[in-house]
Amino acid sequence: MTVALPRRALLGAALAAPALARAQGAARLLVVGGGFGGATAASYARREHPWLDVTLVEQRRSYITCPYSNRVLAGDLALADITFGYEGLRARGVRVVHDRAVHLDPVARRLRLGGGETLSYDRVILSPGIVLRYDALEGYDEAASARMPHAWTAADGAQITLLRRQLQAMPDGGVVGLVIPPNPYRCPPGPYERISLIASYLSKHKPRSKILALDAKEAFSKQALFQDAWQALYPGMIEWVSAANDGRVVRVDPEDMVLETEFGTRHRVSVANVIPPQSAAAIAIDAGLADSTGWVPVDPRTLESRAAAGVHVVGDAMFPGSMPKSGFLANSEAKAAVSAAAALLRGEAPPEPIFVNTCYSHIGPEYAISVANIFRVDEESRSFAEVPNSGGTSPRGDLPEQRRLEALYADGWYASIIRSMFG
Asked: Which domain of life does the UniProt lineage start with (predicted)?
């Protein structure tokens, strides 16, 4: 007679298998991607679960953060100020492999690298970030980004540097055009912080210039706070155009520096910052982890891919439901994923995760605003839900000391999270 085991028992047996197979040695935790999600995961795993054998795969030898890159555009920071190496992770006992992750095989539990090496794992935390969807905007491709930079993936810093130099070279009285994508995308308040800090630079050096922000959305994060600040600090300099008012850009012409909207309006600009739609990075899509949205759906309790056992996905590549794609949440998700992976490797039930988000946005050198949220697992929707009354935004009003303190808090947050990632 065949006895049907309960689903929980079957699941527990399957998930415990790698740990049992590795009973004579350390369980192998592989981390792919060395940004806010990946570096946090590797560092946290070594600190909290020293019995794990942790390997981090990251192609770049140094990491340039997207958070605070807008301050480089404003001239408040240099690129070196937001660039970090991986020596601290090595000192914590993480094996760091600088190579390109080419192909993930979730069935065989192997990762093939560009240099030919293959890494086996018991569980993997995948934090590969995003890829820009160049096919989503007519006229915009990788070649066009040399004329109309996106500056939305830090990579080697070339795009940030290019946009900064274009702003410096623009004559006073020029127009800076921004193309802002629909949701979801990396860092929802990011384009509006960028508008603010470009305005900060222009107000000091090119005060007759204008900023035209063409948006594919009707509203945006911390909108009232941003617009209050624009009126107070940069009156008459910034024009934000919503989708309903013909703000959705459908075509660009890099040669003539023209942004064309869906109703045929053509805007000629001096500098164009085009932020195209995005999706999960190619390695996640090629492994069959992403769904039709282009993002990776996960089990909210373990952050394990719904398409592949043993693969935990964190950061911008994940489909987060109601949670934004932020550096702070990538950090929080990474810790939850490590805790879940460690528990499952021991054959134990994963702990209940809590996801915390805080997002600061600079509007000037000594002026910042913030939003905070806490999220938990919603069993009914099998997704993430914000805890009622768990957060909020900065208060509105003429509050210069509040804004100055939030700028200091932002700097403290950045220093703290970088220290936790890189040592």
From this structure: Bacteria
